[in-house]
Design brief:
The complex is a heterodimer of chains A (about 525) and B (about 450). With about 525 residues, chain A is mainly α. Chain A is about 55% helix and about 0% strand. A two-stranded antiparallel ribbon of chain A has the order 1-2. A two-stranded antiparallel ribbon of chain A has the order 3-4. In chain B, the strands form 4 sheets. In chain B, strands 10, 11, 12, 13, 14, 15, 16 and 17 form an 8-stranded antiparallel β-sheet that branches. Chain B has a 4-stranded antiparallel β-sheet with strand order 6-9-7-8, with helices on both faces. A 3-stranded antiparallel β-sheet of chain B has the order 1-2-5, with no helix packed on it. In chain B, a hairpin with a 5-residue loop joins strand 14 and strand 15. The chains are: A mainly alpha (about 525), B alpha+beta (about 450). At the A-B interface, helix 15 and helix 20 of A face strand 12 and helix 9 of B.
Amino acid sequence: MLQEESDLSLIIAQIVQKLKGSNLYSQLERQAWASLQRPEIKLESLKEDIKEFFKISGWEKKLQNAVYSELSVFPLPSHPAAPPEHLKEPLVYMRKAQGSWEKRILKSLNSMCTELSIPLARKRPVGEQKELLNKWNEMGTDEPDLSLFRPVYAPKDFLEVLINLRNPNYENSDSLSFRTHLGLIQVPLKVKDIPELKECFVELGLNIGQLGIDDSTQVPPELFENEHVRIGQKVLAEQDSAAAQQYIRQGSPTALRAELWALILNISSQPEDVLYYEQLKTNVIQHDLLVDSLIYKDVKLTASNDDYYFVFEDYLYQVLLCFSRDTSVLSHFAFNSASPPKSYIRGKLGLEEYAVFYPPNGVIPFHGFSMYVAPLCFLYHEPSKLYQIFREMYVRFFFRLHSISSHPSGIVSLCLLFETLLQTYLPQLFYHLREIGAQPLRISFKWMVRAFSGYLATDQLLLLWDRILGYNSLEILAVLAAAVFAFRAVNLMEVTSLAAAEAVLADLSTLKVMPLLQIFLFATVT
Amino acid sequence: MPRECQRSEYHVFQPLTSSPQGYGRQDLSSENQNYKGHGLSKGKEREQRASIRFKTTLMNTLMDVLRHRPGWVEVKDWLRENFDHTYMDEHVRISHFRNHYELTRKNYMVKNLKRFRKQLEREAGKLEAAKCDFFPKTFEMPCEYHLFVEEFRKNPGITWIMKPVARSQGKGIFLFRRLKDIMDWRKDTRSSDNQKDDIPVENYVAQRYIENPYLIGGRKFDLRVYVLVMSYIPLRAWLYRDGFARFSNTRFTLNSIDDQYVHLTNVAVQKTSPDYHPKKGCKWMLQRFRQYLASKHRPEAVETLFRDIDNIFVKSLQSVQKVIISDKHCFELYGYDILIDQDLKPWLLEVNASPSLTASSQEDYELKTCLLEDTLHVVDMEARLTGREKRVGGFDLMWNDGPVSREEGAPDLSGMGNFVTNTHLGCVNDRKKQLRQLFCSLQLQKKASS
């Protein structure tokens, strides 16, 4: 009991500390001062009256949402004596692996830099600045020569790193033993099995209404959809983050989705946020970074080629270029196993005073990175709001998909979860694919790294991301990947090569996500 | 989904599933068809034989559809071209109305619509007449030149667009803001190209350019929607659920009115733009467009937009109802081009009597072949339908000498809020399932009555 109490007070102290520095705090202060004018505030019961005022005027709700947001994002402190690295990643071997992977990326970036003799950063001449400002809304029309640039890495390179991860305490040799996993991932992390997943995702159950299933044309809307929409509107009227998060587990109606996501991520477009975005834009105009070319290349290769996202090409530049300048993103490295790469001013290698983070936000984009942003363009078209939503989604979820950690939503755990589910519940399929040299993870890895963006139809993708927000976890990606294999199992049993297996699973655009998940979790005979 | 997945080039495709199951065979008659891609119509006829004969010159989608239709046989020799002057048998069907130009040529369309609007105002008042205000102000050149100048002077600084009445694919169109620009143009066309150009200067219209189009991703787009008219008197029109939004390849700005690539969204024009990448394509299916709107605007706003679009179809057809030479052999599949502005108001750009049936991608191929299949189902040369159907495949009966309601047997409560029209533009198109159910039940009915 005592331990819990002290934990709780620690958490409260931490949250108060964080919120004290936020905009909300000064707003509340101002509101409190202003409220003194009101007749119902009396000197004798000042504290209670102000609290009451906050309750009525909705400010308490805002505070509640902010606290909830902090709880969702920031991991709970484990032990007061734990060093900060433990918050990033408790397991040493994972930290080491992430460190060496980062070194490789940085080396690759530096060598590209030297080869092409392009500086990592340079200030733009005034003429170029003006030109860029004019073209800001149509950067997609620019066709710079990007042939010499290569993406720093692609998901499959990252997969190789994960395959070679070993826990030195568990198994030191590379030779096969009874401890060797059948899949590609060889680290012993704890992952959920189906009974545990059923408990976790209880709202996806068969007897609970879902958007994505119970809103199809055959089902009369009176049965579920109308009521669900009504509740959604109510949740929005109440402006309650926690309620929205619970609500969205059953899916979000199309018309309400943009607002619901903003509520859950606790994003409200204040003038300060718009100003901040404009400042980032100025940074982009003034300085040219090498990563900009990587971003251009990525957008041209992926989103521009997509049947549906090509329309949003310009928005992607506007978001991603600003994202790479945003130093507020650095704060998420406190709980990210990755660390921002450091770069040194020319000639001062090793001297800490001349070190800067490069890029300023510490995130080096890889091939397919722009696909994290593309689906959001469907919901938000105001650049600063779109930007805020993406940034929040990144520091809550997406960063876990490309850094090595033991977190249950980290990509390593997702891979292991996927392989374990497949092995346990579709052993024949798994064995067959393994025998023909088509390890399932080799196919599903790219889906999970991109959170299925670009592989599913947009409306299905948004229903999936609804659940990511609702459960505050990425495990559903692994479950969906396994469900897709289960769905196409019959065809997959007949293939005889990796290429053929890839072909069977090449086109996911016709899949309906929610029925697949529901059947796999709740309706499969085990 | 990523382009890498599409294994075939966009001009060579696998045709759709061959013989559809369970459609039932009956007394199939033979039929001939001669179909040109653009330009004037040809007809098809059928005679009492064991199979339906057809002929077409369009090699892409239509040929595939016709070849796969059970019981239809292609003939090598076409009998006659002057169907305009010859008697057609009862069973013959022709895929154009004789004077469809009343609807499809911009100057005639404008005239008919203006006349219809005046008539509506007289009969039903200003409010009803205002429902015809979906066509931007248009003036025929040069006969209405003075009226145009008057309107031009009343609205200084706005942009106008000059379009040839009878050309397609965006040819010959340009924008202007000053009267001087058209003076120069008239001089140019008169002097140089008139020998080669057989379109005389008179056949142009000047139209008010819509300067605030709805933009997606900063790009302008228009909608292509398909309407099948089975007869004008009485007016029977069907609306196809699928269609597409065609995007301009470059970002919209009023600064560059010389850049026709920005403003013209025809795929034909976009194909020649220096930015054009054939793999890009620039189309969204209507379902995607409708979903996009639904996530940006309130459901009521989206409903109102689609109801206004329905209104465009109905009013435009009604305006030419009395002018079109009514012929029970004729039917016509129109391609309507609709532009949405930032206030979610739809505008009619033009109506095409020969919408392009060439496919630019796999998705496009499937859309057009399904469209053609369903058109042939509605035309019903096999005489399977009862004539009381409200939906055939992807087609919904939109107007049957009066509005058609979605509800089964509900009374026509036009004017009241309860009436929901039987249109589903941009909605789910589960046509295969619907066709299967339809034809199965028709078969059962036939068995029961025989």
